Amino acid sequence: MSSLRPDGRSREMLRRQRLHRSRVPSASGSAEYRIDGTIVVAAVHGPLRIAPWREAHDRGVIDVELSAPGWMSRDDQRACEGRLRGAIERCVELRDFPRFGLRISARVVSDDGNAEAACVNAVCCALIDANVPMRGLICANACALTREGSMVIDPTKREETEARAVVRACALSKHREKDEIAIVGCSTTGALTEKEYLDAIAFIVDATAAVVNIQKKSIARYEVHGKLHEDEAPKKRQNTEDAPMEGMENRPLG
Amino acid sequence: MEARAYERLYPDEAFEKTLETSTRRDGRPLGRARARACACGTATNALGSALARHGATTALAGARASVATPRAEAPNEGFLEVRVTFAPQASELERPGRESDKAEACAARVRDALTSAEVLGSDLSDLCIERGVFAWRLMLDVVVLDDDGAAADAALSAAVAALRDVVLPEATVKRGKIVIGDEEEGVDGADDGMRKGTPLNVRTTPVCLTTALYKEHLLVDPTHAEEALSECEVSVVLTEDGMIRGVFKNGGEVEATEDILMKCIAAARLQYAASAKVILDASEDDDY
Lengths: 254, 288
Hints:
InterPro entries (chain A): ExoRNase_PH_dom1, ExoRNase_PH_dom2_sf, PNPase/RNase_PH_dom_sf, Ribosomal_Su5_D2-typ_SF, RNase_PH
GO cellular component, one term (chain A): cytoplasmic exosome (RNase complex)
Shape of chain B: elongated
Largest interface: A-B, 44 and 43 residues
Largest sheet of chain B: 6 strands, mixed
Protein name (chain A): Exoribonuclease, phosphorolytic domain 2
Helix content of chain B: 25-40%
Helix content of chain A: 25-40%
Domain Exoribonuclease phosphorolytic (chain A): 15-133
Region (Disordered) (chain A): 1-25, 230-254
Oligomer: heterodimer
CATH topology of chain A: Ribosomal Protein S5, domain 2
Structural class of chain A: alpha+beta
């Protein structure tokens, strides 16, 4: 018998999520993602030319900027930027635009809990809006462990501050064989046992299905034809440019 | 071709070859962490300091304190501010100015680990001098002097050892003003090298272990070269009660399955006893 949370949800219920694409007209792509009181606006500029000393010869370069004035301390913002960058590196096909750069900026307009997940989701939708080539959809969520020991998903700000521990993770949505659980990035605060941590991760990965539906619907509404190929298993990129020269493979060392 | 040249030109292939024999370049098996060493009291002017070495990765932590007014909503709590920076000579990625992403990630891990582990108790009431009026603001600066992989581990060890080494000077409130230390010196005035004051009560010893994911291999406590080649790292912070105080994975090209996460946590558990002993031994050496 699960008790209801203060806002009437059960522990597995997510809050109402709303997505508004093309919020920033001048950017290549943008999105505003709302989870009830948490609002994040993300904008993507690019691929665009960057300074020559920053170019990478085989892949694109990503610049992430997060601003959450008043909602997060400066250090937290930087840490969040790092995690955002990791999530983006996983889902964007960087090798499709070598020597170019992608500028992604996210702004937390208001934070009522789960802001980092909203940032990741907003950025993913902004990338879709900008037609950046991607390997799949990335979605994030957070799971809080209350003092009574129960796990609740999508915590509000109050639940986050009162919780014993909070696990934030993001996962790539793709065709999963055998219900495997795989995350792209994660971070935790507070104390938890190993079992609680693994349960929380599984919980979050299950919840990504709901978020992915919203992202897919937004694509369907805007695109006339053409399906995002996230249902195929991701192909392993052949690193042809890193293979040794002919004749080197069979030589012994030294 | 010469082995070292091959390593520089084709690092991936060279690394794969060494991994085939299940040992790494420095001779360690995949699952073994480097030897850890720690020394306290290295910076004499700081209230507490420690130097931690994990293989070649070195981090120096120093703590200083000043008196501050506690916040209105927490009148009997002090402040603990942790700052982690990388010295310019630490690695080739560092440039003066904005911190590189790696340094930010490391700083975030150490800060989160110290907060989650509640090293000074669940609230900072140990740092209170007089409720609502005076409290200690403890500023802990960690500098990573040399980054040879797994800098967060060394930074956290140094930070915890420095906190254990801190001796807060005696502070009394006389006629509404704060007086640090003794105004009247002892009659003989001899400085016998012992610090007067109350040592900080550090309740737990969090230890961090970083594991790198390289293709399907898990490398415990990677060196700088291994970190550069591996796709991502997972850092696990544990305390002596077996609770996880942090699992940090910063994305990257590769996902971590549940299996991998469990292995990383198990590796951290195995390593915990040895690492905690090093930190505790280092801070036991000083006599008060």
